[in-house]
Amino acid sequence: MSRTAGSLIGKEIRKNPNLILGLATGSTPIGTYKELIRMHKEENLDFSKVISFNLDEYIGLEGIDQNSYRYFMDKELFNDINIKSENTNVPSGVADDMEKYCELYDTMIDEVGGIDLQVLGIGVNGHIAFNEPADSLSMGSFIVNLTNETISANSRFFDSIDEVPKRAISMGIGNIQKAKKIVLLANGKRKAEIIKKILEDETITTQIPASLLLLHQDVTLIVDEDAYSLVKSEA
Length: 235
Ligand code: GLP
What we know:
It is built from eight helices and nine strands. By secondary structure, it is α/β, with parallel strands linked by helices. The chain has a six-stranded parallel beta sheet with strand order 4-2-1-5-8-9. The protein has a three-stranded antiparallel beta sheet with strand order 3-7-6, covered by helices on one side. Strand 1, helix 2 and strand 2 form a beta-alpha-beta unit. Helix 1 packs across helix 2. It starts with a helix and ends in a 7-residue tail after the last helix. The structure holds 2-amino-2-deoxy-6-O-phosphono-alpha-D-glucopyranose. The site of 2-amino-2-deoxy-6-O-phosphono-alpha-D-glucopyranose has 14 residues, from helix 5.
């Protein structure tokens, strides 16, 4: 799975060394990032002109906090490839005016011409980035109150559930849909129900934010056997 995703991303970077790359956190893309590091070291995959934008960040966590997504990205990818640190963008969770910062983050993405390739994971409830199931979804970057389900799912990375921030900044569905190409990664039995629902129901609903990806023209879904295990063969 990680090899497939890594080689797809690598191919895009070789085609366009100035690629604007959207990146995700969570446990799912770690293998893909390891593969990108391997490709950089063994196959000279060059990130020197790549610009990255991450999807989200917890509100209140500084980049040096081990649970921040900035820390995660530095550790799992950026420190081991030749991307310029000034070209790596992870939204700040500690800006003075978070609402204004959301607008700024969208402008930063727009100014470089938008995201060429967006890597996504998926939450068990169908969230992408931190677009949680809701009656309506945001176009641009926004501040979100995390659902109890997400807080509990993500608590495995924290010492206790009480330490999980209750709010986050996240790219909106509009930012994600504007990406020219999307790679959605899902692995493990935990994701089997949601993958089945999206592929078999073929229903678009804001209650399953990832279902909106069915409207996008260029999405590659990369799953392992466990995540795909409940999908009927004809879906
Ligand atoms: C977090 C992130 C998402 C990620 C999701 C799934 O909530 N904001 O971007 O897709 O977790 O995480 P995991 O890959 O660990 O299952």
